[in-house]
Design a protein that fits this description.
The protein has 9 helices and no strands. It is mainly alpha-helical and about 200 residues long. Helix 5 packs across helix 8. Helices cover about 70% and strands about 0% of the residues.
Length: about 200
């Protein structure tokens, strides 16, 4: 029996040899993850779509540089870098700010699980929008480390190398980002899972 890992490696090897169909299969496998990550960083759908698509093109061009390990992690780093490059470009040109990037400018976030009830789907979407609003209020440095750690799944050392900041700085930014998001979410406590509401209530003065 061929495992999923073996199957993915087959697709990667074939794509590295120029097989576009194999690369397209990899794109289909990871396009949702790429978009979700880009959406969390960029804050709105149009820019997230552009960043994810451009990252896929970059990945295809750089396939020869992939030397093994987690293909998903390699691809998500390309997505992250593409988003960060765009945000730095915007900052330099002063065309927009993070406060302008609100979920109201975006389409619906990724779809909920098909097994959810209609009420759960509505609640989940409202919570996702609330979380995105809270993330968008972070300053760019805090937002980036939060996304890299809690969404992209990178460890502290990987984030440090990715953003060019000392390990202690990364930990400090992440701690402040999480605290800010947690405080922000108190305004939508009714949307949080019961366990989180109880914890929040217990920690209130």
């Amino acid at each position: 029996m061929v495992s999923m890992v073996d199957d993915e490696q087959f697709l990667i090897t074939a794509a590295q040899r120029g097989d576009l169909d194999s690369f397209n299969a990899l794109v289909l496998k990871y396009q949702n993850a790429a978009f979700t990550l880009a959406y969390r960083i960029m804050g709105e759908t149009s820019s997230a779509n552009d960043a994810a698509q451009e990252a896929m093109i970059t990945a295809y061009r750089r396939l020869s540089t992939f030397r093994g390990g987690s293909f998903k992690a390699w691809l998500m780093r390309i997505v992250t870098n593409r988003c960060y490059d765009e945000l730095r470009k915007r900052k330099r040109q002063r065309q927009t700010t993070f406060s302008d990037l609100t979920p109201e400018d975006a389409d619906e976030p990724p779809l909920a699980d098909e097994t959810d009830t209609p009420e759960e789907i509505v609640q989940s979407r409202e919570l996702q929008r609330a979380v995105q609003r809270c993330i968008d209020r972070l300053n760019p440095d805090q937002k980036l480390v939060l996304v890299l750690c809690d969404i992209d799944g990178l460890d502290y050392d990987e984030i440090s190398g990715q953003v060019g900041a000392a390990l202690g700085t990364v930990k400090s930014r992440l701690s402040r980002a999480r605290a800010s998001v947690r405080d922000c979410l108190t305004s939508v406590r009714e949307l949080l899972p019961a366990a989180y509401r109880l914890i929040s209530e217990q920690t209130e003065p």
